[in-house]
Amino acid sequence: MSYKISFTSLGCAKNQVNCEQMMSLVQSAGHEIVPDPAAADVAVVNTCGFLASACEEAIGHVLELAELKRAGGLKKILITGCMAQRYKADVLEELPEIDGILGTGSYGDIVQALSEVMEAGLRPCRLGNIHTAPQNGPRILSTPPWYAYLRIAEGCDNHCAYCVIPSLRGKYRSRPMGELLDEAAELSSAGVKELLVIAQDITRYGTDLNGEHQLAALLRELCRLDFHWIRLHYLYPDEITEELIAVIAGEPKILPYLDIPIQHCSDGILKAMNRRDTKESIRALFQTLRARIPGLVLRTSLITGLPGEGEAEFEELCEFLREQKIERAGVFPFSPEDGTPAAQMDHVDSEEAARRAEIAVDVQSDVIDGYNESLLGTEREVLCEGFHRQAQMFHGRSYAESPEIDGRIWFSSEEEPEPGDFVTVRLTGVMDGELTGERV
Fold this sequence. Notes:
It contains 13 helices and 19 strands. The N and C termini lie far apart (55 Å). Helix 8 (215-222) packs parallel to helix 9 and helix 12 (311-324) runs parallel beside helix 13. The chain is of the alpha/beta class. Helix 3 (82-94) links the parallel strand 4 (76-81) and strand 5.
C-alpha cells in the first residue's frame, strides 16, 4: 500500500537533516510526499525538545493536526525527534491524538512505523540506541536549491549544565570524512551554492575517531568542490585550533562568519555551567580571529538569568557585548530544564531572566545599528533569494547573514536576478534593522 505523507520539521537545522532523510526513505518505499497535512494520510512532525517552549510549540502543532483528523481527512499523526525521545511514554499517554512515536535513535524506522499505524493498527513506540543510530543516507532537500546543510557529526560530549542535548542525541560521533565528501559532492552536483557545515560542535570533529582535530582537513577537501560559499555553524571556543584558523583565513570559499556560542562571559557562571572557557580566553580568541580574518562577522548565543547571575554579572555581560561588538547574537532567558544540573541550582526567576534578556537585546541592537551604519557606501556580494511584491524590492543575503537566523539585504535592480544568483549590491540605507541598497 502507498500513502500520502506530509512532513513538518521543527527546531534546528540538524533536525531538518533528519527529516530530509526520512522523506527520502518514505519516497523510496513508494509513498507520496505532500506539502499540506490536510491532503495527507499521515502527518509526521519532527519535533524539537531542547527547551520546554519548543515542546509546547510541538504540542500546539499536534493539536492543530488533531482537528484535521476529526474532520475526517488526515488519518494518522506520527511524532519523531527530540520531544519524542525526551518524554517518551508521557507523549503517548497525555496526547491520545498521537498514533506513534520515533525517538532520535529510530529515524530509520519511519517506513515500518507507517505500515504499523496504517495497516496493523498498532501504536508504535520506537526508541532505538541514540549512541549508535546511523547518520548517513540519501536526503530530499527541504531548503531552497541554492543552499543545503552538511551535518558532520551527531551528539555532544560537552555536557553543559543547562543542556539536555547529550541525553537526546547521545555521545559525540563524527561521520567518516569519505562519507561526508561523497554527500557534499552530490550536493554540489545538484547545484547547491552555499554549503552550511553543521553539528552540535563542529570543532570537535574527528577527535572521537583518532584523537585528532580533523575539521581543518575536512574543510580543505570541501573547498575543492564547486561551492561558492561554505559557512560554519557552532564552533566551541576552546576547540578552535591554530590550523583551523589558518584554513578559515586562507580559503576564499569559507565565509568570514563564525558562529561561536559563548553563553556568558562571567568566569563564575561559566564554571557553574561546566563551560571550559574564561572571559579572558574568549576575549583573546575573538582578538586573534579578528586580527587573522579580515571582515569577520561573529555570531554567538547568550543566556540571561543563569544560576549565579546577579546584577553585577549581568552588567558584566552587557559591558562585554559593548566592548566586543559581536555583530550577531541570539539572547535567551534561562530555562531550567528537567534533568539538567542547572535546574537544581539557585537561579534568577523567569520574569527577571526575561527582563534581562530584553535589556541585552537592546544593547545588541545598538551594536548592530553601529555595524550597519559602518557598511553604508560599501559593496557586498549578495545571494539573491527572491522578490517581495509588496516592498517591490529583491532580497538576499551576504556572507554576514546566515539563512533563517539573520536578517536580509533588500535591494533594487534594473535587471531581474533569479533566486540563487550572486549580485553585487551597494549598501545605501537601513530599514527596520536590515540593510538596503541597489544592485551595481
